[in-house]
Structure formats: C-alpha cells, structure tokens
Amino acid sequence: MYLVWVAVASRVHLRPRWDGAAVRRFWHSGKGFLAHNALWWASANADNALVARFAGAGSLGAYATSYRLSEVPDLAIADAVAQVSFPSFTRLRAKGHDVTGPYLRVLGLVAFAACPLAVLLSATADPFVHTLLGSKWNQAIGPLTLLGLAGAILAVTTSQGWLLKSIGRAMTTVRIYGAILVLLVPPLVVAASESTLTAVAGVMLARGFAVLILYTEAIRRHAAIPVTRQMRPLRGVVPGCAMLWLAARGTAEGLDSAPAAVTLAASVAAGIPVYLLVVRVLDRELIARVRSQVSVALSRRRGSRPADSVAG
Asked: 98 near 171, Cβ under 8 Å?
C-alpha cells in the first residue's frame, strides 16, 4: 500500500517495460547473492524446523529465543559494518587497490566489539535468562551457552563472507553454504530427534566452525591473504574472549545463590576488564585503533550538535 501511494504522489511517472539486456546483466551480477541468501537461510533455519518437528512448539520457542539472542552482536555490529565496508572494498578493488589492509582493520574492530558480547551471553546464560526472561525459559539456558559461542564466530564469518562477495566470489560462498547444508542436516536430525536442545545448539556451533574454516581457506585462495595474516587481527580478541568466559562463568557459578540480576551484573563486571586487559597486553595496536575510532565518532557527534547546545 505504501508503494502504491508513493507511486501516485510522485511527480515522475515511469512506464514499466521489459529490458532483457538489463535483466541479464543484473542476473549475472546478482545470482550469487540471491543463491547465497537462500542457502544461508536454509542452513540457518534447518535447526528450527527440526526442533519444531521433533520437540514441539514450546521447545522451539526456547531454542529460537536463544538463537536470536546469540545473533544480536552480529546483527548490531558485524552485519551493520559489513553493509558499509562492502561497497568500499568493491570500489578499492575496481580501482586496482589491495583490500587486504582495510579488510583486516575492519575485521579487528568488528571482532573486538562483537565477539565479547556474544561470549558474555554464553558465559552468563543462566543469570541472563532468569533476569531478562524468567524461570519459565529455563530450556533456553543450555542452547544459549553454546549458541553464544557460535555468535562470536558468526561476527567473524560475516566479515569474511562480505569480503569474498566484494572481490567477485559470491558463488564461492554459495558452494560453501551448499556443502554446509548437506553436511548439517543428518546430525541435526539425530540431535533433534534423540537428544536435547543443547545438542542441537552444539551442531550449530560446529556449523560455525566449519564456515569459519572454509571461508578462511577461500580467502587464502582467492584474496591471497595467508591464514596467519587473517588471524592476526584476532590475536588478542580470541585469548581475551577465552579469559572473559572463564571470569564471567566463574563469577556466575560462585554467586549461584545470589539474585540473578546481581549475579549477571557481577559476571559482566568481572569479565569485561579481564577481556580488555588481555587484548591490551597481546594487541596494543588494536586498542590504539579502537581509541582512535572512538575519538573520531565522539568528535563527529559533538560537531553535529546545534550551535546553541554546544555553546551551552
């Protein structure tokens, strides 16, 4: 309806017609993106379909909630940044420039911000669910513990996937997700029919690792970025996330008898400083880059304020 009203109100009226040459051009450039989205959707929702089939609607609600929560850091940070970096990488490649440096810088910043949030969801699954959702959602605790880790991997693979698309390798991502879907369904059927929601989440965590490995190899082959160099932006983030998980999970278990909200707050307060300390020790360059980006963002925000509010 909105589209109809816009068309009616517009002062420019275009008569639709078929342009075969344009259709072929758009299909040639966009078929990889279309196929990727279709296969990604299938591989990302096969678990929901099987949980609904074998475990019922109630279990599906708990599982789907934990899955959506684990996606939040990726959707809020990694995917949002990718939507901006993709055209930038494409323009650089079109001009004959190397995208390796910009990509690795973006990967480091995205991982720094998104991965610890997802890991925190994993480490604090119990107090998080009891604080924000309530005890009726206890079934979501087990899946969220594993899917939070999958969410941290997802933030990295999102950046990897958009890099491959920006260098003209969208069909490579299609083949990867096609293979993942074929390999994914049998263990998902077993987990959903004979095990628990946590087992289904474990299969999806394995899916995340598989995508990470295949994307990393594809980038090595098609973008000529060695694996060691691809992992360099993560040299502080990965150990930092591991220590964050241990600190937050240890705090959550130590305060098991305390109110859930207090346990959640204490776990976050214990984990974040540990994460920042580890990253600072292992990757000072990344910390400096994060500070620079924060300074730029704050300066732009101040510069966008109205003159009277700035003066005040």
From this structure: no
